[in-house]
Amino acid sequence: QVQLVESGGGLVQPGGSLSLSCAASGSIFSFRIMGWYRQAPGKQRELVASIAPAGSTNYVDSVKGRFTISRDNAKKTLYLQMNSLKAEDTAVYFCNGITQQWTWGQGTQVTVSS
């Protein structure tokens, strides 16, 4: 079982930036496609970005050009750099696998507001 702990969220003004981290336990992290998900109030959880073990990435259209996902397999850590944040990016952000998922962590709240 892999445990996932997200951090780095906060309150930021529109146009600002935040950097999220996800610390994972277990060596299997290095061999799995990982993703950042988000869930806004009243909405379903959605996948916003994913990264393969070797580093290839995919993004949902709404964050392309603004968000960058990365990973450090040695540190078993997943990152999400978020720039040019918009109010619609407000959500709780989670990390988890794509083809294999583990128990969801508590997530980290991102609030974009002036």
Structure description:
The chain has 114 residues and is mainly beta. The protein contains no helices and 10 strands. The strands form 2 sheets. A 6-stranded mixed sheet has the order 2-10-9-4-5-6, with no helix packed on it. The protein starts with a strand and ends with a strand.
The helix/strand class is mainly beta
**Main beta sheet, described?**
6 strands, mixed
**How large a portion of the residues is in β-strands, by DSSP E?**
over 45%
Strand order of the largest sheet: 2-10-9-4-5-6
Q: In whole angstroms, how far apart are the ends? A: 40 Å
Radius of gyration using CA atoms only: 13 Å
Overall mean pLDDT: 96
Shape: globular
Count the helices. How many?
0
What order do the helices and strands follow?
A: EEEEEEEEEE
Number of strands: 10
Uncertain runs are: none
Give the fraction of residues assigned to helices. Answer: under 10%
Question: Topology, pairings included?
Answer:
Layout (H helix, E strand, L loop, with lengths): L3 E4 L2 E3 L5 E7 L9 E6 L6 E6 L5 E3 L7 E6 L4 E6 L8 E7 L10 E5 L2
Parallel strand pairs: 2-10
Antiparallel strand pairs: 1-3, 3-8, 4-5, 4-9, 5-6, 7-8, 9-10
Q: What descriptors fit this protein?
A:
four-stranded antiparallel sheet
Brief overview:
It is built from no helices and ten strands. It has strands at residues 4-7, 10-12, 18-24, 34-39, 46-51, 57-59, 67-72, 77-82, 91-97, 108-112.
